[in-house]
């Protein structure tokens, strides 16, 4: 999957504008989707992406990048966003595709799939990070978008909560690794478990920390 940087050609946005979504809405854009992914860094499990379209009058006080929220606050906002969003979709790319595509391309594919799964077609997609997506929708990559755009923050929460639940389920299959605690990230405990038990089927065997123990 190729990588693309993309900027919406028709739109003009001043760097100083703090509310990016509102700035776009003033240009006549009604349906804006925020998209974000989680799971690029871990040594195991899928990469998960979510896309969210919020109503223009949506208010979620203190909703921000999921990494800055406690698990309890993420669960709270997950319920709020699911209840109030005009549309949302969650998609994942599993370990076999991560191994074949590479983690960046797999992450971009998951985000593209999430946007394409929305039941309401967005007029503009705001993407967390510097990369564009291979989709036929006007798009805007935004560095630290999960801290600057409400819809991207909402997407980051949905993706994070979904993936964490998956890792808890994987923990039940492979309890030796304690995935429920570290969610697949390369903690000292996780690295020691890989060294002791060897990789299991959900480990990313091309990643440092895992590949050294593959036979």
The CATH topology is what?
A: Nucleotidyltransferase, domain 5
Summarize the main sheet.
5 strands, mixed
SSE arrangement, N to C: HEEHEHHEEHHHH
Which blocks of ≥5 consecutive residues have pLDDT under 50?
Answer: 6-10
The fraction of residues in strands falls at 5-15%
CATH architecture: 2-Layer Sandwich
The backbone outline, from C-alpha atoms, is elongated
> How would you state the average pLDDT, rounded?
91
SS-based structural class? Answer: alpha/beta
GO molecular function: manganese ion binding; RNA binding; RNA-DNA hybrid ribonuclease activity
Function: Endonuclease that specifically degrades the RNA of RNA-DNA hybrids.
Main location: cytoplasm
Catalytic activity: Endonucleolytic cleavage to 5'-phosphomonoester
Written account of the structure:
This is Ribonuclease HII. It is an enzyme of class 3 (hydrolase). A divalent metal cation binds at residues 36-37, 128. It comes from Desulfobacca acetoxidans (strain ATCC 700848 / DSM 11109 / ASRB2). This protein has 215 residues and is of the alpha/beta class. The protein has helices at residues 20-25, 71-84, 95-101, 103-116, 145-148, 150-173, 179-182, 188-197; strands at residues 32-38, 47-53, 87-93, 124-128, 139-142. The protein has one domain: 2-Layer Sandwich (Nucleotidyltransferase, domain 5), CATH 3.30.420. 39% of the residues lie in helices and 14% in strands. A five-stranded mixed sheet has the order 3-2-1-4-5, sandwiched between helices.
